[in-house]
Specification:
The protein is an alpha+beta fold. Helices cover 54% and strands 14% of the residues. It starts with a helix and ends with a helix. Belongs to the major facilitator superfamily. Proton-dependent oligopeptide transporter (POT/PTR) (TC 2.A.17) family.
Length: 713
Amino acid sequence: MFHSYTVSFCQDCFGYPVSIFFIVVNEFCERFSYYGMRALLILYFSRFLGWDDNLSTAIYHTFVALCYLTPILGALIADSWLGKFKTIVSLSIVYTIGQAVTAVSSITDLTDFNHDGTPDNLSVHVALSMIGLGLIALGTGGIKPCVSAFGGDQFEEGQEKQRNRFFSIFYLAINAGSLLSTIITPILRVQQCGIHSEQACYPLAFGVPAALMAVSLIVFVVGSGMYKKFQPQGNVMAKVVKCIGFALKNRFRHRSKAFPKREHWLDWAREKYDERLISQIKMVTRVMFLYIPLPMFWALFDQQGSRWTLQATTMSGKFGLIEIQPDQMQTVNAILIVIMVPIMDAVVYPLIAKCGFNFTSLKKMTVGMFLASMAFVVAAIVQVEIDKTLPVFPKQNEVQVKVLNIGNGNMTVSFPGMEVIQPQMTQTNTFRTFGVDELTSINISSPGSPVTPVTYNFEQGHRHTLLVWAPNYYRVVKDGLNQKPEKGENGIRFINSFDESFNITMDKKVYVNVTSHNASEYQFFSSGIKRFEIHSTQPIPQICVNDFQSSRLEFGSAFTYVIRRQDTGCPELHVFEDISPNTVNMALQIPQYFLLTCGEVVFSITGLEFSYSQAPSNMKSVLQAGWLLTVAVGNIIVLIIAGAGQISEQWAEYILFAALLLVVCIIFAIMARFYTYINPAEIEAQFDNEDEKKNLEKMNIYSTMAPVSQTQM
């Protein structure tokens, strides 16, 4: 009795096979691993590897496209060779290795031989990250079509209700993993870590998803003894491809008018394939035809992790007492999904039905595409507001100059067509813009002193600071900032007005050997208050305060800190703003996320249900692969547009995507208007009845022939 109870408990728990709990936990950990890693990618490319926005976006969408192309390979391996269980285990090992390699690629100390906090050989990091991402794409894509189907295999006949609920729990596990990871990994990223020098902790942020993937693999393997495992039954996808290929070849071979036309082009496969298979493929191709416009939706949807994250970096993440990182804004989608799915199912759809409107699956998908298009219109409006707050930087044929007087008296600086009187320890309000041909001369003077001409070859397309501290003493410094500091960080540089050099340590970053009356390079810091110390070659009196702190840094600003020595010998700090902080709040992105999430709910979930309902029982995996292929093609579309890089204004690119999807939405609505819904089960039942009749006829023939045969013998 004890033994039978134990077996029963292992096989069944609250009406569900115990094995599915291992599968759900496995999926939660795997999705945490994938989305946690993916949330970091665009900033890792642009901040750590130093790629520009277009290249970062292109590589990001190439990776996502690969993740949705490899499911075809995973389905082929599972159906034809290893079976679902062995495929999941094998590719999960590849997946885990890929996550680990990606984490290793983000370790600065791997090639930081001079311990200055920056990699000395970026190509090593690029190579490792590309290898890691390639393995991840193979792993996550390869197991994608297998895990949910393997979970469905665990249920017995008569457990349809439990199986349907399992898929709801499975989808919830996906979103729970996505939500938690996109909150946690950006928090880990902004921590400081390192062996010789400390910087953004990408190794930890990538390492946690790698660890979760290892946990996912272990949990799945632990449940091995409880799974129902089926041997591979042959690849349906291969049969579909062969049948279509034969039909096309046969039709081409009989293209002359001597051969009568057939009702459907697939009917040309009758010479080799049975009527049931041909009919099933007809159902599949009708749905696949509707898939043609769908990639455009995914082209917009997957830009949450690229263009929208980059947009967030030019905004302020301050929500009251909370500060949000740009890559954490992606959690809005996961939160809204959890909220909107039950609202749509329990409130919106029933209300529409009560109003008597026939809101079919294809109509829902059309509305979803329209909502996604409107989301990008909102994104464009937000971008216009952001652009209004951005400083004006010099064009390629222009030069910008500002004057900073770090001396003890007033200075007069003459530019072509204007004269500036600059009091001591002040700077001009703005950078003054000159055409290259206009900046013919600059002169410095003060009362009772001769005029000193500034001789300097100003670099086109750059900002410059003219440091003056006496009538005949000046220095021109190229600023090195031609755009807002990236990713919402804040640039800080120091100017030394001492007579000797000094070093400054600020928030564990070191400004080395800032020479007298010269400026350091900018270094970049996250938001918050930063402390710094001055280490001068001439000792600073002990009575002096040498532990300074910055004002509270916001997002996307740049400052110049001038250090001068007072009469007492103590250092004194003067702060000048070079670039004002971001003022447009990230909260303005919430409407575009809301519209896109509503579009996802009525498009993506409905599309999967529609595909499942219109597919024959043995062709559902084929349509699943086709659906995932539309996601891959959508990312390739973004890759092409971002790779072209011909659109200089970001708001214009958003409008372009919105317009393209709107056109595709109209085309899809027309295609949907002519689609006739079918019931594959009824069609297959007709074939089953015909097969039974044929079998009965054969049995009747044999029963009448048997006595005659015996008599003749």
